[in-house]
Amino acid sequence: MPPPRGSSAEVVLAYAFGSGAFTATEAIAGTGLTRSTVLAACDELVQLGWLRALDDARAAGEYRKGRPARRYALDDDAGVLVGVDAGQHRVSVAVADLRGVVRGRAAASLGDTGLDVATRLGAVRDAVAEALADARVGADRVLVVVVGIPAPVDVRGASPRDDGYWDRMNPGFGALLGYGRLVVENDANLAALAERPSSGDASFAALLSGERFGAGIVVDGVLLRGARGGAGEMRVLDLVDGVGSPEGIGATARLLVAEAADRIPPGSLLAGRNGSERLFEAAALGDPVAVEVVDRLGDRLARVGVLLASLLDIDRVVVAGAIADAVGPVLDRARVHLADWDYDPVPELVASRLGADVVVLGAVARALDEVRTDPLALALPVAASLSAPLAVG
């Protein structure tokens, strides 16, 4: 077969990303390149720090007769990737190796200070530094940083002008994170990248559903973006009957419980300042106000699901974000409403299994895609392959 397009080093490195330890013979079969070309490419990639030369097959106990084959493997620790979920109220960071395995983490709570740009940028900076320390790796090893934000983002990493919220969410991270290649991306799009492996060939929406609804949409295997990065923005819900705003399940639950305060008896689980946090527990016990609120949340979610499925002909809506761990009762009610309505297609409604990590894991996946797309454009730190491997913090 003809060899794939690209330089021989790029082709061999792409093979290494998808393989464990391999011999030149295996790389020849996997790439279609000649033996001399594969060996030259492997030598070049070892010198650049992308590959490790391993013990030969005889030393590894895999070879008995003749000349032992040289063996190679991707140097997983040649550089690291940083994924950041820079939400309004919380920052989460993960540091991963070149296989996407998370080696270090950090998080910071912004509370009500997340709209202050200086506070927000400082929290991101400190959380990245803490996560690198947790991974026991220096900033010079960072190849790509991907920052997920709750705002639309175009291909240049810029957000459209609005009433000021998007500007605060995307105030410019370049000077702050002055190492590695920086990518700024919409958080719901990153959630969709994280959910794509579990959704197979389905066209789906990853619906961030805590404070505000936001959808990352994959149709026929392609992540939809739009000219200004606005695909999946849910401000249109202001105009949808029975929904009325883009407020998510968590925010709406608090509002509905507060509205019903005069009907909540003192002994109810819903009583008190944090009553909405015990909403699903109260509903399971048959509390009439809680049951009503859960039903209204289910109706709201079902309407959002119908809107997405009708416009985009998608197969499934994945409710994502921290709310996904507790959203089962709302999904049950939403499915009942969908069954009662005469709409087609009816989307499958499921909860994400990634919980609050969905955006930060999507950021790591996006960073890994960035590396694999054009790895040789990235400069590895000097003698990275000779340094100590990353340690799990």
From TrEMBL:
Matching Pfam families: ROK
Family as reported in the entry's similarity comment: Belongs to the ROK (NagC/XylR) family.
The protein, known as: HTH iclR-type domain-containing protein
Lineage: Bacteria, Bacillati, Actinomycetota, Actinomycetes, Micrococcales
